[in-house]
Design a protein that fits this description.
Blueprint (H helix, E strand, L loop, with lengths): L1 H10 L4 H8 L3 H15 L7
Helix pairs in contact: 1-2, 2-3
């Protein structure tokens, strides 16, 4: 699912609604997938 999420996100212009429609999932589910992906990749953390 990770690869599908990234692919849909990129192919749909980084638009949550279009990416979720492309995967046939609710936009909230897509937002959760993207949040999980960000956590796994270490995003959102600022260096001190």
């Amino acid at each position: 699912m990770l690869r599908d999420t990234i692919t849909a996100w990129c192919e749909n212009g980084f638009t949550l609604v279009r990416a979720s429609a492309g995967l046939h999932i609710h936009r909230t589910t897509m937002a959760l997938y993207l949040a999980r992906l960000t956590d796994q990749l270490g995003g959102g953390q600022q260096a001190e």
